[in-house]
Amino acid sequence: MQANMSIGTSLDFFLFVAIALFAIGAIGAMTRKNMIVLLMCIELMLNAVNLMLVTFSTYYGNGDAQIFVFFTMVVAAAEATVGLSIIIMAYRNLKSIDIDMYNQLKN
Amino acid sequence: MPQDLTLILLLSFPLLGFAINGIFGKQLPKMVIGSIATVAVFASFLLATSLFSRLDGTTIVNLFNVLDFENLQINASFQIDALSIWMTLIITGVGSLIHLFSIGYMSHDEGFYKFFTYLNLFIFSMLILVLGSNYFVLFFGWEGVGMCSYLLISFHYNDAQKGIANSLAGRKAFIMNRIGDVGLLVALFMIIGQFNTLEYTKIGHLIESNKALTGGAMFFITLSLFIAATGKSAQIPLFTWLPDAMAGPTPVSALIHAATMVTAGIYLTVRSNFLFELAPFTQNIILYTGLATTLFAAFMALRQNDIKKVLAYSTVSQLGLMFVALGFGAYTVALFHVTTHAFFKALLFLGSGSVIHGMHEEQDIRKMGGLAKLMPITHFTFLIGTMAISGIPFLSGFFSKDEIMAQALHHNTFAYIVLVIAVTMTAVYMFRLYFLTFHGEFRGGDQLKSKVHESGPSMTLPLIILAILSIFGGLLNLPGLFFKNSAHWFDHFLSAGTFGLNHIHPVHLDFATSIQLMIFASIVALSVLIWAYLNYVKKGNIAKDDKDLNGWERLSAAKLFVDELYNVLIVNPILAISDFTGKIIDIKLLRNGVYALADGVLNSANISRKWQSGFLSSYLFWMVFGLIIFVAYYILKISVWH
Amino acid sequence: MALILLPLVFSLIAWLLPSAQTRLFGLIGTTINLFASLISVYGFDAQDQLFIDLGLRYVHFSLDSLSYTMIILTNAVFFMVYLSNFKQEITAKKRFSALAFLMQFGLIGVFSTNSILGFYIFWELTLLPIFLILYWFGSFEKPKALLQFFLYTLLGSLAMLLSVIGLLQLTNQQTYEALLAADLNAHGATSIWLMGGFLLAFAVKIPLFPFHTWQAETYTKAPTAGTMLLSAIMLKMALFGLLKWVLPIFDGVATEFWRWPIITLGLIGVVYGALIAIKQQDLKTIFAYASLSHLGLIAAALMLQNEITNQIAIVQIVNHSIVSIGLFLAAGIIESRLQTRDITQLGGIAKVAPRFAFWFAAITFVSLSVPFTAGFIGEFFLIKAIFNAHTLSGIIAATTLIFGAVYMLRAYQIPMFGPTKNSVFEDLSWSEILVFALLIIAAIYLGLSPKCLTDFVATSINQPTL
Hints:
The structure holds 3 protein chains of 3 kinds. By secondary structure, chain A is mainly α. Chain A has a single domain (11-106), classed as Orthogonal Bundle (Helix Hairpins). Chain A has helices spanning 11-31, 35-60, 64-94. At the B-C interface, β1, α5, α6 and α25 of B face α6, α9, α11, α16 and α17 of C.
C-alpha cells in the first residue's frame, strides 16, 4: 500500500489523539459508577476507533476503512439505543443507575 | 446287581430320605418320617454288606466329569475297596441304630422332621467322604459333614434359655472345622502340584514307580493333611469345639461326634498312608500330638459333671489314642480301634441319652444315682460300654487298646508310659461316671424320682445290639495268641484290600511280651474298677461341690482353661482388630481422607469463585488487562524477540 | 442386534407407559430380554464370533462366548432384580424402570462392543442411571455421600478416558483385534501409565482396596434394587474390562509392572473386608464388606493371566452375582418387614418365618462356598492359582474360608436365632421364594457341573494368547 504523505508526520498526532480518547473511554468504563456515563465512555471508545480508522484510511489512500466506519457508527447507534432502554428498565427495577448495585451475576 | 448300581443306590437312599423328609416332612406323621429315614440308612447298610461280600480288590465307579482341563481332570468317581466299604458298614450300621433310637428320643420334639432330614443328609455326606476315589470328592463330603454338623449342633436354636448358646456352639464347631479345612485345601493344592491328579490310586502308583518323591514337599503335604485331620477329629489344638458340641441332641453326639464324623480325620490319614509313609517327621508330630491329646483330654474328663461332657472328653482322648497308632504307622490297628470305639462310644452316648430322657433332661451326674434299679436295660448296656472302654479283659475295647499299647511298647517306651497313664485315667473317669449315675442313692429329689422310667423298645433295642457288638467286636482282630487261623483277621482284610497298606503291617509282639502286656493291662483295668467301686459306692463319695475342689481337681474341672486361653489369645484380639480396622482405619483414615480431598477441591473452588464478583467494572478491568497482555506479547514477539 | 437395542427401546416405552403398568411391564421386559438372549445363544457355536453392524461409525459390536455369558448374566440379574422387588414400591415408579432399562442397555453395550471408544461410552452411560436411582430412591441423609460415589467413579472414568485417548494416539487403532495386534511393549513406560489409567477406573469400580471407601456407605443406603444392580452386575464391567481388554492388550511390560501390586491390593482387600465385616451391625454393611472380600480374590486371580484361572474366574463371577442378589434380597426382606437392618435389634426371626429362615440359610451356605455350590469351585481354583504363584499369599487368601464362616454365621444367627424380639414378620411371598429357588438351583448346578460354563467360554478367553 502506498503511503500517502498527505498527512505526513502528523499521523502520529492523530494516532495519539485516538489512543488518548480510547484510553479515557476505557478507564472511564472501568471506574465510573453511573450507567449513562458508562454508555458515553463506550461511545467514546467507539469514536476513538472511528478516528483511527479514518486516519489510516487517509494515510494509505484506501477507502475500505472509511466504509467500515459506517458500520461502526451504525452499530454504535444501535447499541446506544439498546443500552439506554436497558438503563431505563434497570432504573425502574432498582431505582438506581449505580452499576455496582447490579451484581446478581456473582458466584 | 452290578457293583456300580449297588453303589449308586447306596448313595441315593440317604439322599432320597433327605429329600422326601425335607419337602414333605411337615405333613407326614412322625412314625412315617422316622421310618423313612431309618429304612433309608438300613437299606444302604444292606447294600454295603452285599458289596462287602463281593469285595474283590479295588473297583472304581465313575459317575460324571466335573472339570476337564488339559493337565487336570476332576471326576465325581467313587472307590469300592476294603477301607471304604468297612467305613461304610460302620457308618450305615451304627447310623441305622442311631436313627432307630432317635425315633423314640426325639418324639417330643417339634422339629422332628427337620432332625431326620439333617441326619440323612449327614449320612449322605459322610458316605461321599469315605467312598470317594479322589481327594476332591473327599473334600465334598468333608465340608458336607461340617455343614450338617453345624445344623445339627445348633438344632435347638429356638430354646428360650440355651438357644443362643446352642447356635454359638454350632458356630464354634464350624469355624474350627474351617481352620482345618484350610489345611486340607493347601494339601490338595500341593498334591495337584506334585502329582497332577487327585485320584488315590493314581497317586499311589506314581509314588511306587518314582521313589524320588520324598523330602520337603511330602512333609508339607502330610502336615497340611494332618492339620485338616486335627480340625475334624478334635485333636490339640482344635478340639474345644467337641465338648461344646454336646449342646446338640444326644443322638447327634452319638452319630457325629463319636462314631463317624470325628473319625474322618483318621480315615483321611489311613487313606493317604502312602504319603505319610514318606514323611516320618510328620508321623512323629502325629504321635506326639496324639499322646498329648489323649493325656490332657483324659485329665479334663476326670472332674466333669455333665454326663455328656465326660463322654465328649473321652472321645477326644480316644481319638488321640487312634492318632498315636497312626503315628506309629499302624493304620489297621487305628482303624480297629475306630470300629470298636464306634460300637462302645455310640452305646455310651445312646445310653446317656436314655438316662437324660428318663431323667427328664437332667444331665448333671451329681443329681443322679441309683438308676440301676430304675432303668435296668440302660444300666446293663451302659455297664458293658464302660467296661469295654476301660479295657476290661476280653471285651472289644480291651483288644483294640492292647494292640495300640503293643505298638507303643515296641517303638517308644515313653509313649507306652504316657498311654498307661491315659488308659488308667480313662478307666477312672468312666467308672466314676458309671457308679455316680447308676449306684448309690438317688440325689435328684423325690419328685423327679417318681417320674424316672426306663425307655421304650425303640431306644433300648439299639442299646442291646450295640452292647453285643461291644462285647464281641474284639473278635475281629484277635492277637495271634488265640485261634491262630483267624487271628488278625481285620488286619489282613484291610491291608489286602486297601492300596498302600499291603506293605505296611503293624508290629506283632512275641508270645511272652503279648501275654505280659495283656495281663498288665487287665490288672490296671480291674484295679480301677475295684477302687472306683469302693470309693464311690461303699464310701458314698459323691462328687464334691465346686468349693471343695483342690488345685488339681479345679484344673481338671476347668478343662485346663483352654477355652479361656483361646478367647484371650485369638477371639478377643480378632474382634478388637475388626473393630479397630472398621472404625479407625476404614472410616477415619480412608473415608475421611477421601472426604478431605473432596473438601479441598470444594475449598479451592470457593476461593476461585470469588472472582465472579458481579461487578461489571472488575470484569471490564480484567478483560482489558488480558487484552493488553495479549497485544503486548505479540508486539514483543514480532519486534523484540525472534 | 435386537439383543443390544431392546433394552433401549424398553427404556423409552417404560418412560411413556402409565404408572399402573410400569411394574408389570418391567417384569415382562426383563423376561423378554432374558429369553431373547437365551434363545440367541442356543444356536451359537462357542468358538465363533458374531460381528454386528449397527451403522455407527466409531462403535462396533461383536459377540463371542464371553460376551454372551456376560449378556445373559446381565439379563438374568435384571430379571431377578425385578422379580425380587416386585412387591416393593420402587418397581412401580416409571423413573426406576426407564433408568433400569437404560442401564441395561449400557451394560450390554459394554459387554458386546468391539471398539475401545464404544467401551468408554457405554461405561459412562451406566453411571448416570445408577446415580439417579440412588438419588431418587435411596436413603442418603446427606447428599455428600452419594456425591462421593458419583465423583469417585467419575474420577476413575476420567483416568480411563485419558488412557483411551493415549491408546488411540499411540496406536491409531480402535477395534479390539487391531489393538491386540498393536505392540504396546515398544512404548515401555507409556504403556505402564496407560494401563494405570484403566486400572484406576477399575479399582474404583470393583472396588479394590484402598479405593473402596465409597462402597460400604453407598451399598448400605441405596435401595435394595440399587444395591443388587451395583454389586451383581455393574462392577462386573470392571472385571470384564480387566479380563478381556486391559490384560490382553497391555500384555508384556505393563502387566508385569502392575501384576504384583494389584494382586497385593486384592489380597489386602480379602483380609481387610473380612475383618471389618466381623464387627459390623448393619446387615447390608456386612454384606458389602463381604463383597469386597470376595472380589479381591477374583481381581487378584485375574492378574495371574492363567488360562484355567480365567475360566474359573468367570464361574466365580457368576457365583458372586448369585450370592449378591440372594444376600441383599434377604437384607431387603428384613428391612421391608421390620424397618431396621441393625442386627442388635433383631432376633428370633427363624421362629416366626420358617420359610425365610430356610432360604436365608441356604444362600448363606452358598456364600460360604460349601461344596456342591459354584463358589466352592471358584474359590478352590482361584486360591490354588494364587498359592501356586506365591505360597504365603495363597495361605492368606485361604483364610477367607475361616473369616467368611465367622461373619456370615454371625450375620445369620443373631437375627434368626435366640429369643424372639420381633413377632410380626410376614413370611416370604411367591416372587421372593422363586428368586431364592432360582438362585440356589443355579448355584448348585454350576457347582456340580462348572464344566458347561468353563468349556463355553474357553475359546474366547484364551483367544488373545493365540
